[in-house]
Amino acid sequence: MKFSKLHKRISELEEMMEFDEVISRQIEESEGINKPILLEMKKVGIDRLPYSFSALEVFIDQETMSTHYNKHYKGYVDKLNKALEKRKGSDMELEQIVQSINRFTDDIRNNAGGAFNHALFWKMLTPTESRATGPVIQRIKKDFGTMEEFKKQFNDEATKKFGSGWVWLVLTNSGKLKIMTTSNQDNPLMDTIKEGGYPLLGLDLWEHAYYLKYRNRRDQYIKNFWKVVNWKFVNKIYVARTEKKLKESVKFKQIISEGQSRGCNRNQLEAFREVFNTNPDVKSTYRRGIDSIMKTVFKEYWYDQNQYEPGSFYGVYDFEQPGRSVINKLNTNYTLFCTIVNDVNTYLRHQGLDAINIVGQNPDVQIKETQRLISVIRDLQFRIFDTNSGTFSAIMSTLDAKHKQGDQRELDAVVNLKKIFGTDEVFKTGELGSGEDMLKGVDAYMQTPEGTKTMQIKPFGSYEEKDGKITVYKTAQVKPYKTDYLVFHNNRETIVFKNNRTEIVDGNYVFNPEDQIKG
Ligand code: MN
Description:
alpha+beta
């Protein structure tokens, strides 16, 4: 009686929570702007058992179910939440913890796995007959031949498994299905598991799951499992996982048009630009960190080299639109570096932690603070880079606007370059859709009798001739390029230099006056 009362209360609470979530999402969507940045620590919740303890008698007895749910499963969730409390700044969904488990302690690995596996397991079972139909069954037949053959292989793997663990049907990254076992409370989704994937169906092989009823006859327990498999649920995960890409990209287009950049003020931007251009280690630390986070978060969209575009750069492809995604520019964009620091600091202060302090520090401190920034972003990665996060909306709308601006700037510059060089044979690289832009910093090129000359086009504020040198100011990112020419363009003029003797002094480009090309 006690249990059923508690059970009822849990489901009431859960329904209320779900309702709140739906409402707040609807409000957010109707306003379309100002999504909140992250402030609260998350707790892992307890999933409701979707049937009574005695409902699965053909498979497992009431007493086992009750102990399994109330003692074992809830125990994992409680211990997990206790362990997570000690990690200030950690704030992820359970599935995301599981996906990046390599970064956590063994204690968290065991309990997060236990919480996640059991929450899945309850839903994978049903007391009402669930017909094996739908795309997942077609896929099983394709990969295993027949349902009988699939069940046989699943049973064999389960029977062979030594000690405590689970047997799984897994959707691999290549889209194929396979059967595998994991030990203890590991899950195929964990980044510590080699050649895992997304779990579609799982069976608990711990003695606590069957011993009361079956004793040492684990094979009987495995056989009876098939009587209560919730194929409807298995099919639902399969369809959701295989359609995920499509859904996310549709959702994504909305974000880009609705997002509001909160950003930084002009003084902050100038300060961060200076840090980026005077302390290359800050830039490389930030870049490496962001790259590895992108690789984790956008796993399904990440290519070390894009197979569709030979010679193209590593990064995220086909995310917000087909082809290379604008999110790839995040790792070198100081405007967003500044935005992220501001948002992360809002979060850190709210958690009672020290804010990230980069501007005005000595170079070593700047690097340490950048490392700390990256580790906070990493802890929050799945919530920051989520369509519901305000920071992410700001990032995407800024990148999208910058991308359009940059495109326009290059088009305008090409018009002027034709005048300066006195030829119509100047072209913008991106127009032909090649990957050259990212790979070599080529924005435009010119056909000449001596061959193709390449150009990098950058914005600039002003330039000054002093002591026989020309210094160009406020050119965004300052780094060496291998192009034949460096072009600077703003809404007043376009200036061009040969790029064979370019120097970088105090974070600015410096040229010999005789290298300037004048029309
Ligand atoms: Mn169990």
